[in-house]
Amino acid sequence: MTGISKEVVFTVSRIRTTFVNDIGNPPRMGSGTGVFLRGRSGKLAFVTNRHNVDPSMKLGAGWALQDVDLLVRLHEAGAPVQETKWARLAMNRTRVLVADAGDVAALADLESVGPLGNFGYKALNVKLATDESFARDTQIMDPISFIGYPGLAGQPWWDEKWETPIARTATIASDPAIPFTNSSVYASDVTLVAGLSFSGSSGSPVFTHAKPGVVGAEPPMLVGIMSGHLLDDPSSSHPMRHSGLSYYTRATSIAKVLDLV
Q1: Does the pLDDT of residue 244 top 60, yes or no?
Q2: Which end of the chain is less congested by CB atoms within 10 angstroms, N or C?
Q3: In the chain, which ranges are E strands?
Q4: 78 and 141 part of one domain
Q5: Residues 6+ apart with CB under 8 A from 163
Q6: Which is more confident, 33 or 212?
Q7: pTM for this predicted structure
Q8: Is pLDDT above 80 for 79?
């Protein structure tokens, strides 16, 4: 067993964004995944990839974030699944916090445009993999899992009725104790994995697995958020260009942005 609580599905959310520019081009829509965590101050924040909320990273200068919608849930004790609805954030009050190195951002001071009623956010309660125990217990070829909302616009792969995310497994492919560097990876402070991450997975939380029988081993930890994948042939138009290699932004960058919340 992985040791990962089933409650994790209620802390992972979809994010929808609207980007606009200053020369009159049509708005651009984006989507991805993120997870609710507590900052150093104890305040709730939504953690996702920076490229999900910062259009300059992929669209270039002149583009700005206009609107953010987050999927929120109705929390009912004992319910196997929970109803969902979209909440539009009040962008005049929301803070978008970014780390200096990694592709990670946190949305803080979350406030919706309209009332949420009984719907709301639930924070993930798990240890960040940033200390010596992580370096001791985690190594190359270890299994990990990530959970999110992969699929292109109009072609979702998740549960469409209940809007619950789906989980995938992968294997750590580079030394997790040091950042992976490669000219094909635009981001810094990442770890490479052997696994299939697709559009919409950006921001999916990535977890280690429990190690039954290993004395003193740490329980599952949050090691990062999925951030992208390598293409087998970037010049090809074939839909299956995935190399089978993906990468996540490490928990060290998550910790830095949570210090700002």
Answers
A1: yes
A2: N
A3: 12-21, 28-38, 44-48, 63-74, 84-88, 95-98, 105-108, 119-120, 143-148, 151-152, 155-156, 166-172, 190-194, 205-208, 222-231, 242-250
A4: no
A5: 14, 71, 84
A6: 33
A7: 0.91
A8: no
pLDDT digits (tens, 9 = 90+) for 213-227: 776 778 899 999 999
d(CA 91, CA 68): 8
**Are 191 and 40 in contact, with CB atoms under 8 Å apart?**
no
Q: How many domains does the chain have?
A: 2
pLDDT value, residue 233: 61
Residue span of the structural domain in which 173 resides: 132-257
> Does residue 1 fall inside a structural domain?
no
DSSP string covering 164-206, please?
--EEEEEEE-S-TTS----TT---BSEEEEES---TT-TT-EE
Of 95, 125, 155, the position where a domain reaches its end is 125
Are 175 and 202 part of one and the same domain? yes
Q: Tokens for 246?
A: 């993906």
